[in-house]
Structure formats: structure tokens, C-alpha cells
Amino acid sequence: SDLLSRADGRKCPTCSCKMEHLSGQKFGHERPNAATIEHINPRKLGGSNETWNLIVRCNLCNRASGHMMNEWLQRHKHNPSWNEKKRMINYLWLEVHDTFTAQELYPELFASFWDKRNSMSTQEVEYSKEIWIKKRASWTQGKRPIRQGPRKRLT
Questions:
Q1: What is d(CA 90, CA 12) in angstroms, rounded to the nearest whole number?
Q2: Long-range contacts of 5-9 (CB under 8 A, 24+ apart)
Q3: What DSSP line would sit under the chain, residue for residue?
Q4: Whose CA, among 38, 78, 109, 138, lies 20 to 30 Å from 95?
Q5: Closest CA to 89 of 70, 75, 69
Q6: pLDDT reported for residue 90
Q7: What is the mean pLDDT of the chain?
Q8: Of 111, 124, 108, whose CA–CA distance to 58 is shortest?
Q9: Average pLDDT of 56-74?
């Protein structure tokens, strides 16, 4: 997508990490800085795929926001009142465009988002550490992978 390629090397609007465009690559939680397309007003709340409703965020912020919103929907039994929907849509717009104001006007929603983000970030570090330990253990048992050809640089 053009939105994603233009985001390569730019800062996430929420956390300011440097995002990377992973053209044609599938990825999951192991690439927290990957550029992802976010619906400002989520489709679950009536948002569309129109360009004005899309923004690029890092994978970690996008996932944390989605988890926070899903918990919110569960608390409202997937049927929030119109006023609650408006409140959430306003918050989500601020979460992407003005995190300071989001934190000031909706402290409980922002705290939930930020807790999710920090928790996911910690889990990813632990997951990466766990994989590294397993790889290193297999190397000490004589199973070290043989490098074939020059290393490819991920861009």
C-alpha cells in the first residue's frame, strides 16, 4: 500500500517509534515497529475503509488499541449506547492525533491502552529472549546452523 511505503522510516503518531515498511512480508507480534494500517474509527463501530479514516501506526500501538477496544466492547456486551460509541470514537481519534489530550480527557481509556501496549512490549521481549535461549541451547549441542551465502539485510 502507498500509505505503508510512505510511512517507512517515519515516527508512529502515538509512540514516536521509527516504523518500518515490510513490503510483501507477513509478520506478527515479533515486529512491533512494522508499519500497519489503522482504522481511526474502527469498522466494528461503523468506520469505513475510506482514506480519511485510515492512518499508519506501528504494529504494537495498533494491536494494543485493538485489544483495549475489544475489552471495552466486552464490558458493553458488544452493544454500547450511542453516547458510549461517540465517546470511544472521539477517544480513538485523539489516541492517534493527540495523545496528550487523549490522556487528559479519557484517562481510563488511555491507561488501558498504555497498559496493554506495555504488557505486549514486555511479552515480546520475553518471547524473543526465550527463542534466543532455545537457539543458543541447540548451538551448544552442536546444532549450530550453517550460514550459506551472504547474509540478507532486511529492509
A1: 19
A2: 6/56, 7/35, 7/56, 8/35
A3: -HHHHHHTTPBPTTT-PBPB--TT----TT-TTBEEEEESS-GGGT----GGGEEEEEHHHHHHHHHHHHHHHHHTTT---HHHHHHHHHHHHHHHH-HHHHHHH-HHHHHHHHHHHHHHHHHHHHHHHHHHHHHHHHIIIIIPPPP-SSPPPP-
A4: 78
A5: 69
A6: 97
A7: 85
A8: 124
A9: 96
Cα–Cα dist 107/129, whole Å: 32
Place of cell 512491533: 32
- Residues written for the chain: 155
Instruction: Let me know if 124 is exposed, middle or buried by CB neighbors in 10 A (0-12, 13-18, 19+).
Output: middle
Mean pLDDT over 31-36 rounds to 95
C-alpha to C-alpha distance for 62 and 17, rounded to whole angstroms: 13
Question: In terms of pTM, does the model score above 0.85?
Answer: no
